[in-house]
Amino acid sequence: MQSKINIVSRLIISLALLTGLTVSKVTAQASVTATATAQVIAALTATETAQLNFGRFSPETEGGLVILTPEGVRTKKGTVVLGGGTANSASFYITGEYEATFSITLPSGPATLTNTANAKTMQVNDWESYPAPGIGVGKLIGGAMLVNVGAVLYVGDMKANPVGIYAGIYAITFSYN
Fold first, then answer.
1. How far is CA 13 from the centre of its chain?
2. β-strand 90-95 against 45-50: which pairing, if any?
3. CB neighbours of 117 closer than 8 A, spacing ≥ 6?
4. Helix or strand or coil: residue 18?
């Protein structure tokens, strides 16, 4: 029995020595060379191709609303009488990186239109667009897309909004995602 124990002990010692001799130096770190890349894409541009134009109308006794959809459909509420002439939604031609998506942010509040002769005002609000506003709603198929914008014009009576041309500005933001 003693010889078996001696044999097993020698075997264990031999294995331990053999393992100790074959282990190479182990380190706690490693280095690697890696690659970084970047790609510059075309700038996003927006060009107004048609102005938001509520057309000709008369407020009559109480005024009301002139509603212009992004598709260019004009309707009214209240005593407003729609006249002839041209009315159209605003259009913006967006260009940039092929197939890129972009976001549309419409005004968060009203824009003021001011009568160029007497400083009387009307408000434009309730903005809509096609495609609808939001994150990633537009896609530059072939590197371009047309965005249409409509809104509601709030009109007072003839005293509040007398005859004349009313004009103002508003801001829309288009941005890559």
1. 73
2. antiparallel
3. 164, 165
4. helix
Measure the CA–CA gap between 32 and 54, rounded to whole angstroms. Answer: 64
**Residue 64 falls in which region: left (phi positive, over 0), alpha (psi -120 to 50) or beta:** left
User: What's the CA gap between 15 and 12, in Å, rounded?
Assistant: 5
User: Which residues, at least 6 apart from 58, have a Cβ–Cβ distance to it below 8 Å?
Assistant: 80, 81, 83, 158
Q: Which amino acid is at 70?
A: P
The pTM for the full model equals: 0.79
pLDDT, one tens digit for every residue, the chain (177 residues): 556 565 655 656 555 555 555 555 667 899 999 999 999 999 999 999 999 999 999 999 999 999 999 999 999 999 999 998 899 999 999 999 999 999 999 999 999 999 999 999 999 999 999 999 999 999 999 999 999 999 999 999 999 999 999 999 999 999 998
Neighbours of 152 (CB within 10 A): 20
Residue of 130, 144, 145, 116 whose CA lies nearest to 70: 130
94 and 131 Cβ atoms separated by less than 8 Å: no
Distance CA 10, CA 12 (A): 5
**Can you read off the two tokens belonging to residue 170?**
């508003």
Token pair of 163 as six digits: 């005859």
Distance between CA atoms of 127 and 68, rounded to whole angstroms? 9
